[in-house]
Task: structure prediction
Amino acid sequence: MAPSRPGTAALVAAFAAVYVIWGSTYLAIRFAVESLPPFLMASSRWIVAGVALYLWRRAAGDARPALLHWRSAAIVGALLIVGGNGLVSWAEQTVESHLAALLVAIVPVYIALLSWGATGARPGWRTLAGIVLGLAGVAVLVLPGFLSAQGATVTAWGLLAVLLASFLWSTGSLYSRKAPLPASPLLGASMEMIAGGVLLAVVGLARGEASHVDLAAVSARSWIALAFLALFGSVVAYSAYVWLLKVSRPELVATYAFVNPIVAVALGVVLAGEAVSGATLLAAALIVAAVAIVVTSPAPRGPAEPPAVAE
Result:
């Protein structure tokens, strides 16, 4: 039986969640890592959200997932949650939230490049122009951090970590479309959260973060940020993202990169006093323009792919 076409209201709500909520999570992550170690903070966020969502979906009647489903969930969790979110959480100890959001906005460019490599279908000239423009924006944003005076090494590595996180997130997003996962997108999302959260805990413990956890010293702002990330960033927005990947084109889903930087920059300036330089504004213009070109360009010619069907 062919899957039912999603309703307009559901699509609008899901895109709104991904557009707006994820734009605010960059500042929430910055507040959370002020007094919590990054990988263990991220681990607790995803495990709590994943377990709650998993128990709800099983109680609602979703079938018990197979071992193959858990394997796929672990791969997606490693790419999206550990590689994508974990690295951003680590980077935001030294990288301001709006800069991280701008670098993550390059995701549609990565997806275009990865799709090109996977299918062999050469993108059109508009897509290629968008890729070049996006890479130019990244260079404007990143190069000063690597070329500045001594003392900026950590920040430079933080910028590089966000770029790597964006690449891993793009890879996981494409893989998840064909990965054998449960028929219920929400159950699959919960499994990815749990698997990714456990892997984040392993990374955090291996880095010795447990010795830096002092619950008495955790600020109220960090606790509130962590709760916001778990409920809204993980349960609501991540579930919406996973569902959209199943029912919409990945290039269209990636348009959240238009809005996330705007929300992140506004919140960073207003709530955290982050300074936005002229170079940052130029980079933002280049990256957003590149994303607009890439996601509105015609798909490359080649054999049409059937929609991914969950197993």
